[in-house]
Design a protein that fits this description.
By secondary structure, this protein is α+β, with helices and mostly antiparallel strands. The protein is built from five helices and three strands. About 40% of the residues lie in helices and about 15% in strands. The chain is flat. InterPro entries: CDK, Kinase-like_dom_sf, Prot_kinase_dom.
Length: about 190
């Protein structure tokens, strides 16, 4: 029979000693944590008892009131409905609350590419051509990206949708932010 060679990854005495030492350290940490927690609870209880005795002496309370001060406060306060608090005559005079409305962008058709005056060509990339343009309405200088439509007979290409989604999600000082998507008369504009 051939003797098997010992694997260099097999556990040896040093590994076992390290494992035992790690377990001892872990147990020691657990015990220290439990001791700190026990001391903190004792201090909190002593503080609570001293506050209760101060309250009894300071307010000159009766024994029933002292029991109230010694008990622990509830974690949540009960909320009362406005109907339970208000008088029925004032409740009938109040109007229902109104919803706050904030200005938000309107949904509508895309603006036309003719709303921009093309100034000059900047660069051509894998997914389209980028050129500098001026918005006729506001006068802002913007970058227009014309997407390449390889499979125009199949509809809008998935690569174009991915490009738009990537530009919408990009937020960096070196990346021009996407303001809007404009379109032309034909699918390749």
């Amino acid at each position: 029979m051939a003797s098997q060679a010992k694997s260099r990854w097999a556990d040896d005495e040093e590994d076992l000693a390290l494992d035992i030492q790690r377990k001892r350290d872990k147990e020691a940490k657990k015990k220290a944590k439990a001791e700190r927690q026990r001391k903190a609870e004792e201090e909190a209880l002593q503080k609570q008892q001293s506050e209760a005795s101060t309250a009894r002496n300071g307010f000159n309370a009766s024994s029933e009131d002292a029991q109230i001060y010694e008990t622990e406060r509830p974690s949540k306060k009960r909320k009362l409905t406005p109907e339970a608090i208000e008088d029925t005559s004032t409740a009938s005079k109040q109007q229902p609350p109104r919803l706050l409305r904030f200005p938000a962008p309107q949904w509508g058709p895309c603006r036309h590419v003719d709303n921009f005056e093309k100034l000059n060509h900047i660069e051509e990339g894998s997914y389209g051509w980028v050129s500098r343009a001026k918005d006729i309405n506001t006068g802002d200088v913007v970058a227009l990206k014309k997407l390449k439509m390889d499979n125009s007979n199949d509809g809008f290409p998935v690569t174009g949708l991915r490009e738009i989604q990537t530009l919408m999600a990009s937020r960096h000082e070196n990346i021009v932010a996407l303001r809007e998507v404009v379109m032309g008369d034909k699918l390749d504009e």
